[in-house]
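Researcher: First entry.
Model:
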Amino acid sequence: MRIVFCFLLVVVIEIFSVFTPSSLFAQQTNTPLSDVAKQRSSPPSVEIIAIDNRIKVLNAPIGSRLEIYSVVGIKVVEIEMKQPCGEYVVNIAKGYYIIRIDETVRKVAIR
């Protein structure tokens, strides 16, 4: 009798261990995916576009600085951002430059 009881106990434990993980970890949510994406979304990223001798900036933090460096690392121009979006004319020689606004860095060609 004791052997049968132990055998049944082992069978019940095995069945319980096979079916329990899926029922413990599966959760149904009623939150639409678009709401989840909105909760996890970060602020819009800074966009930097260079056209000829104009630099167009979108979504920049107010008070940040637009810094233009030559490819060898020398700062050529520094402009304080007073608006989140704007277009700036830069009078610098044609060539390749590195533009930095806070943590956003882009390589551009001034023509």
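Researcher: Second entry.
Model:
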Amino acid sequence: MDESLDRKNLVVMKLLHYFITEKNYNPIILQGAEDEIWLENLESDYKIIRIVSNHIHNEEQLDFDLYKARHIIKKIKKKTFSLKMNALSIFTDLGDNVELKEQPNIDCIYLYDEKDIKKYDFLYQYFPDINKKLKFSEEGLQLFIKITNDINHKNKRDAEKVEEIFKPKKNVVTMSLITINVVIYLFMLLFGQYDYMINEFALYGPYVIKLNQYYRLITSAFLHANIFHLLFNCYALHIIGSQIENYMGRIKYLIVYFASAVVGSLFSILLTNGVSVGASGAVFGLMGSLLYFGYHYRVYLGTVLKSQIIPLIVINLLIGFSSSGIDNFAHIGGLIGGALSTVAVGVKYKSTKFEMVNGLIVLLLLIAFLIFMSSKYIG
């Protein structure tokens, strides 16, 4: 077997082991990309790692190779909603007269073997342990078996995590919320309690701020003006809420739902006049939550984000602004509250404690600010 082929395979295998098992990169399946491996980690500084084993003969071939790489990166950037996408191209077989040049958003290095890592000091800023992790005590077949097993185990763990998030679950909370909304409306309608429930539990700024009836921020989300209002919100809650409950879990779902209702109600008090009822602020909060979740799992939901979630939010906001009698500021507030509360409770396997603490702080500051401004405005 060709000695250079063995050498390249060894370098590629060690790099794959490091980036997949140590740095949580995942392979990208690309059509037409021969003799190169693409890895992706959207949480890393280098979102793309590209390992090229093809022999690059001259400068012209290198320029064409990088031109193709930039085209592919542009497509990945668009698909994953990434504002900026830095990439690292690792070449393992360059001609003697080929010189790597600085490229916009693509750093290029040449590794004949792992010892060449020391030539590129900037790598230690992003991967401080790379030199140590590329060293193995095993050799030959034992090294191949170890690397293969480690990568397979890592891929299996990742697949189990994704399955845990996306597998269908019973939507107990969503059905309970829908049931509560329906029962309350039927109680109002059948027992002639409509006026009483509106007077006692609907959202009305002066009652909330001056009389300290802050419970109205939540109770108003369980009242509806008419049967069509109820059916629309319950249908939206069934479609969107079931997904959030499935992806986020029941406790986080409830936190997001009620936080969205509160923030939506406070936006309504501050920016509108009159009485307001309905679960739409909380439902818009679930849309904001789904948007934030979908961004973190955009490798799996990228198409859904672009074709369904974002258009759904935009269309409903446009309907709210173009129609009378719709509290669109509650929708906007709920949307913001849903996104922020999701940051605070975190997305499983994606969010860090730092992000969650910051999300909680921003959410609480927003609520405090809205209450303060409402008291000044209404007072």
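Model: Note on the second entry: Strands lie at 26-28, 36-40, 46-52, 86-91, 106-110, 203-204, 275-276.
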